[in-house]
């Protein structure tokens, strides 16, 4: 009889959601001030964002190492698991997915099922939450993977960053060339496209207008939130932006008390900087 484990990345944000302690987390390494930190363990969001403005260099990240993956696999095998579904951050944002694919041969008698979420942050986290729920209900690996594919086909992220330099410097903005000339003057609308890449889709001149456009795109796509099964709000030390979004949500009858509005993990914040506000959601299917 199969026993299925769920693994995901620390970038998923599950560290900040209670009730999923049995989901295994592979941690990104953050290189900052010539020191290395394990995302979510050695470095918490508040500590990270408080230091960010004082750094001389933009922090870098490294995907979970082969040794760390093998340690996770071995522990799962020792606990009697037969299968492990690894739900990874988009392969176009990190080498993690490819690393997991290569790691399948590291261990015998444990079948690794890599799943490229095509997304990041709490969308990946939601996939892990749903996979864990299905495991608890006794679902098969195939049933879980099919459900994850449906989520992947229906998830969206829109957001605004205060400073594009983090995304550009780390190579995470796919169409950065089109925005370079005016990157200091605009607050573009950013989104995760179907390929799992971050792209800038609209040039907007002020922070206020950019936040409003993030909200408008969400409303336009979801019938004011009515066509969604999961919504999360994310920010990087921008509580005032978060309150703006919540107020607009409440105006159209969305209950914000039940929404995830936890901070973004430091490993994601390395590529976004401070002042970020965004909306992620999964449409009904």
Helix/strand layout:
Blueprint: E1 4-9, E2 24-26, E3 29-32, E4 35-38, H1 45-52, E5 60-62, H2 66-78, E6 83-88, H3 96-103, E7 111-116, H4 121-136, H5 141-153, E8 155-160, H6 165-169, E9 189-192, E10 198-202, H7 207-222, E11 228-235, H8 239-251, H9 266-269, E12 277-283
Parallel strand pairs: 1-2, 1-6, 6-7
Antiparallel strand pairs: 3-4, 3-5, 8-9, 8-12, 9-10, 11-12
Helix pairs in contact: 4-5
Radius of gyration: 19 Å
Strand order of the largest sheet: 10-9-8-12-11
Helical residues, percent: 25-40%
Number of strands: 12
How many H/I helical runs? 9
What is the CA–CA distance across the termini? 31 Å
| Structural class determined from secondary elements | alpha/beta
How confident overall, as mean pLDDT?
91
Sheet of most strands: 5 strands, antiparallel
| Strand portion | 15-25%
Assign an overall shape: globular
Low-confidence stretches: none
| Sequence of secondary-structure elements | EEEEHEHEHEHHEHEEHEHHE
Give a written overview of the molecule.
Helices cover 34% and strands 22% of the residues. The protein is of the alpha/beta class. The longest helix is centred in the middle third of the chain and has 16 residues, at 121-136. It has helices at 45-52, 66-78, 96-103, 121-136, 141-153, 165-169, 207-222, 239-251, 266-269; strands spanning 4-9, 24-26, 29-32, 35-38, 60-62, 83-88, 111-116, 155-160, 189-192, 198-202, 228-235, 277-283. Strand 3 (29-32) and strand 4 (35-38) form a beta hairpin. Helix 4 (121-136) runs antiparallel to helix 5 (141-153). It has nine helices and twelve strands. The radius of gyration is 19 Å and the shape is globular. It has a five-stranded antiparallel beta sheet with strand order 10-9-8-12-11, with helices on both faces.
């Amino acid at each position: 009889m199969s026993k299925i484990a769920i693994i995901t990345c620390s970038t998923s944000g599950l560290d900040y959601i209670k009730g999923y302690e049995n989901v295994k987390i592979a941690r990104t390494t953050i290189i900052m001030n010539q020191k290395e930190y394990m995302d979510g363990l050695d470095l918490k969001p508040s500590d990270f964002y408080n230091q960010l403005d004082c750094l001389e260099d933009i922090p870098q990240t490294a995907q979970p190492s082969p040794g760390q993956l093998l340690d996770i696999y071995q522990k799962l095998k020792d606990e009697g698991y037969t299968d492990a579904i690894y739900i990874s951050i988009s392969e176009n944002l990190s080498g993690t997915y490819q690393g997991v694919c290569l790691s399948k041969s590291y261990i015998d008698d444990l079948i690794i099922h890599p799943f490229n979420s095509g997304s990041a942050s709490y969308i990946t986290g939601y996939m892990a939450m749903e996979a864990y729920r299905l495991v608890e209900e006794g679902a098969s690996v195939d049933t879980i993977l099919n459900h994850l594919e449906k989520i992947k086909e229906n998830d969206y992220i829109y957001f605004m960053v205060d400073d594009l330099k983090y995304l550009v410097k780390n190579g995470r903005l796919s169409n950065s060339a089109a925005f370079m000339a005016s990157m200091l003057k605009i607050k573009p609308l950013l989104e995760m496209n179907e390929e799992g890449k971050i792209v800038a889709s609209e040039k907007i001149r002020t922070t206020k207008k950019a936040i409003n456009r993030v909200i408008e795109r969400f409303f336009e796509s979801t019938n004011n939130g009515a066509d969604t099964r999961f919504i999360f709000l994310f920010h990087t030390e921008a509580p005032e932006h978060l309150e703006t979004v919540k107020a607009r949500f409440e105006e159209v009858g969305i209950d914000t008390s039940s929404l995830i509005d936890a901070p973004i993990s430091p490993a994601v914040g390395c590529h976004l900087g401070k002042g970020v506000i965004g909306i992620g959601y999964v449409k009904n299917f």
